[in-house]
Amino acid sequence: MAFRAIVTGIVWGIFKGKLSFDGLPFKISLAFVAANIGLRLDPKVFTEIQSLLLPLLLTILITLTTGYFLSLLLYSKTDLDEMTAFFCCIPGGASEIIGMSKEFGADERIVAAFHTVRITVFVLFIPLIVGLMESTAKVAVVQKVVEMEWMHFIFFPIVVVLTLLLDKKFHIPGGTLLFSIAIAFILSSFVVDVGSSPAYLSGIGQAFIGGMVGVRFDKAVLVQLLKVGKMTIVIISIFFVVSILTSLLFHYMTLIPYSVSLIGTVPAGAAEMSTTAIALDLNPSIVASLHIVRVMLLFLLLPLLIKVFKAINRKREKVV
Fold first, then answer.
1. Long-range contact list for 291-295, CB < 8 A, 24+ apart?
2. What is the tens place of the pLDDT at every residue in 253-301?
3. Which residue pairs from 91-94 have beta carbons closer than 8 angstroms and sit at least 24 positions apart in sequence?
4. Contact 311, 246 (CB under 8 A)
5. Which tens digit of pLDDT belongs to each residue from 26-83?
6. Would 112 be classed as within a structural domain?
7. Which of these, 76, 108, 146, 318, has the minimum number of CB atoms within 10 Å of its CB?
8. In whole angstroms, how large is the CA radius of gyration of the chain?
């Protein structure tokens, strides 16, 4: 469902023009999807995440190092200024990265175009790869049909409203996803018995998020990317290959299924990969947790990365 929504959004964006769903609409859809994750959350996940932290830190280090050197490559091979090149290649929290880029003097249009392409490519192809792997690895299981209950009409709006209030008060990377999962888990585990939610509820959220991602890819994005040229293809391709290899390393270090490792470690957006995990029933709690850790760690390291990036470029310019 998410794949079809993305394709529909791309077609609309290119031929009809961009529709802006950033901000509140996207957060509502994300909170709705994350509430489904929180509803399924097993307390054992917290123990499992602890055992995955060291391998995850290694994969994050590889991803950040790759992005860092790609930003140096992009800066040296194009006419982009150093901050624009830097923010184009930092993988994680696209909305937050785009917003911060302007504060550091980067061209946010180029940065937004780059991240739009990165996320679109990953969200299009990663689910296809995982879907093919899963279809050949196991026989389809007939799932129990769950009916919509009156409690769901109360539970999900409450989770969404509380999430938006907390997200407005506490600005942290990945906050919408984190708050929604936590609230849904606490309410369903300790306050009220909600029961299982129908599969189509999460499907609705997946469709909305997929469409919002796809519609960002419009003519303006294409124009901005043409200014950069073939380096766009080079950067995205390297990112994609490194992500596949990194997820393979994470799989061997943790022994969790490769499909879960892939969607849990690729820098393709926490919201998008979490919805993919729900759609394919691939441990969405673990996937969402891995992405939340990745995004938060990235923002903790971002000031240091910017300082080092500027220092290296200053030395290179003096030599030249």
1. 291/174, 291/177, 291/264, 292/174, 292/177, 292/178, 293/49, 293/53, 293/56, 293/60, 294/56, 294/60, 294/63, 294/92, 294/265, 294/267, 294/270, 295/92, 295/93, 295/96, 295/173, 295/174, 295/270
2. 998 999 999 999 988 777 678 777 877 778 888 888 888 888 778 877 8
3. 91/63, 91/64, 91/66, 91/67, 91/118, 91/239, 91/267, 91/298, 92/173, 92/267, 92/294, 92/295, 92/298, 92/299, 93/173, 93/174, 93/270, 93/295, 93/298, 93/299, 94/118, 94/119, 94/269
4. no
5. 788 778 777 877 777 777 777 888 888 899 999 988 988 898 889 889 888 888 888 8
6. yes
7. 318
8. 20
Question: In the chain, how many domains are there?
Answer: 1
Q: Is 148 domain-assigned? A: no
Minimum mean pLDDT range among 35-49, 126-140, 204-218, 234-248: 204-218
CA distance 296 to 284: 18
Tokens 């729900």 correspond to: 278
Q: Is residue 159 part of a domain?
A: no
Is position 269 within any domain? yes
User: pTM, whole model, 2 decimals?
Assistant: 0.72
